[in-house]
Amino acid sequence: RSQLLLFLGMYSTGSSLSCKWIVKDPGDKMCQFSLHNKQALGLLDMMITNTTKDAEIEHNVAFPNRLYRKTSKATAEDKLAFTVQILEKLFALFEEDHSSASWEENTVENFLNIVNKQAEELRSCVSSLSFVFGYSAEAWETIRNITKDHLSQCGFLVNSLGNAH
Which fold has domain 2-164? Predict the structure, then answer.
């Protein structure tokens, strides 16, 4: 849930891009992105089941706060491109076989539709050059550093398996 909450803070960064999806119309309480984001968060809340509601689930995976802090200093276009990629990865993740979660299929489908809509609309706000030619040098340095951190953490995880057996 906290992952998607961070997106709420990112919608205002694109107003300079003249993107209607992230600009609040006069008289509206929130922009379209925020409205859809709120709906997606609500659907995630609905997906909790009786079997997981009271479960003691350890959160061993740290949220990449540093990545979001660095991205918050990027250009508006890079922020939107980053958000599009996150939404696309979320879509792919939840599209996987989740039958063991016993979620209501209709709720998952609605969630996927909203996440896909957000990604499509934000993608249209970003210059196609950002996706073809890539991010700025600063953004690539951030990506490189975070990739290094992820690979290091993966190494620690795999190495810990040798100690457990």
Answer: Growth Hormone; Chain: A; (1.20.1250)
